[in-house]
Automatic annotation (TrEMBL):
InterPro entries in UniProt: EF-hand-dom_pair, EF-hand_13, EF_Hand_1_Ca_BS, PPP2R3C
Organism of provenance: Gadus morhua
Keyword Methyltransferase among UniProt keywords: no
GO biological process: B cell homeostasis; cortical cytoskeleton organization; microtubule cytoskeleton organization; positive regulation of B cell differentiation; regulation of dephosphorylation; T cell homeostasis
Taxonomic lineage from the root: Eukaryota, Metazoa, Chordata, Craniata, Vertebrata
Sequence ranges assigned to domain PP2A regulatory subunit B'' EF-hand in this UniProt record: 185-261
Entry-linked Pfam families: EF-hand_13 (PF17958)
Major place of residence: cytoplasm
Record-given protein name: Serine/threonine-protein phosphatase 2A regulatory subunit B'' subunit gamma
GO cellular component entries: centrosome; cytoplasm; nucleus; spindle
Amino acid sequence: MANEKTTHWSDILKRRLANSTRKDERNEDEKKAEETELFTKYYSEWKAGSNRDSSYKKIPRFYYRLPAEDEVLLQKLREESRAVFLQRKSRELLDNEELQNLWFLLDKHQVPPMSGEEAMISYEAYLKVGEKAGPKCKQFFTARVYGKLLHSDPYGRISIMQFFNYVMRKVWLHQTRIGLSLYDVAGQGYLRESDLENYILELIPTLPQLDGLEKSFYSFYVCTAVRKFFFFLDPLRTGKIKIQDILACSFLDDLLELRDEELSKESQESNWFSAPSALRVYGQYLNLDKDHNGMLSKEELSRYGTATLTAVFLDRVYQECLTYDGEMDYKTYLDFVLALENRKEPAALQYIFKLLDMENQGYLTVFSLNYFFRAIQEQMKIHGQEVISFQDVKDEIFDMVKPKDPYKITLQDLVNSCQGDTVSSILIDLNGFWTYENREVLVANDNDSNSALDLDDP
């Protein structure tokens, strides 16, 4: 490269001197001085220009423009390259045969004595297994992984079962990430609502616990399942969720738990994604829809649950939530159900707090609390109950929450206090308030019932 540059400048100088119209009447020193001057000038210009032109090459490229909709060829190329990349990543994962081989190697190299009923392995044996297990397993046999799994064994060993479960979990996470990435149309690491709907729709036939679902119910099931992901993982309502967030939460575990053909009835009832749970939620919606128009009016929604939600709270629901000619569709209803059934969760509290914060100030004042509690007092009068003073309830709420500002309660105050579910129940639901007010009696009754059961036991 240096020789090329030298030749380049010598050629320029020779041409320049050859084209000079000046007579050769100068002495050698003058000629050499002019040559040096020209060389210095052109070399300086070349060097400055070279640095300016090539400097951008030193900056790593960090932005790759996505193909526009009309760039069909570029889009196809991107899709194909992503598919090839994901296939390559998939081939890097351990298959069932390789996992079996890993288990046999671990079992063969276990180091006695056993810890209870668990087989153990030392660090030396662990490294030997890593050498024999093959290149795909190399990432799992590191000092860092061993240190993570090292607990209180007096011989400095780790549990073979714990290590194998760790490997299985990692393989499952990578498999799931690749599976989800296939539905990431934009290739940006997130799924839109339609992407996740497609993923779950194609997952249904692989889940034995959903075998009994009629195909006509699939669209309602998919809507029910997708809403839970978006309600909790997209609090800003951007319409997309990071694949990383989907993997980090437990929802996918709950969904894939439906692969278990022998899942207990209790587990099915507590799993939002199970067939009984989805049918329960949709059945409630149909029962509330008295005029069978597929939507819920405010009067129809008032019969939700124990039918004790206050009219003031329901007014706020229909003011803030998406409705169609004053009526609520199934998707909006699902958000409503998820909020009320999970009041301890920050996302649910955010939903309810937005309804309680009438002036969108970012905090609740004594006036806000009084406004909602008056509706509870009115319901108490209707049911012939003794009306409780707001002053007493207000003091209890502030004592429970302990806000940073003694006159304002923020959403973060509710979350930090771990009492957000109780506060919201007191303000929006007569049954919730009654449960809170009679909590000591209910606890005593539970204890009496447990004592009676103990006496009945042989």
